[in-house]
Amino acid sequence: MxxxxxxxxxxxxxxxxxxxxxxxxxxxxxxxxxxxxxGKYIEIELAETDEARARAxxxxxxxxxxxxxxxxxxxxxxx
Length: 79
Known about the structure:
By secondary structure, the chain is an alpha+beta fold. The protein has helices spanning 16-27, 51-66, and strands at residues 2-9, 39-45, 72-78.
């Protein structure tokens, strides 16, 4: 079972890397970019076949290691 995890900064948390990307896009001639927020994308292949147990395991992984839940939010997609 494959899982995709998208991790992004919470609203209100400053994103200097996103600002740098937006600035660089403007310098490259891409007008109209108002805001950029960057994040992380992680794919995990699991041996688990039960979706509920897989989701519980992935939630624990995000809570304990993959995401800094103080400043980040995450979304899990199981394929």
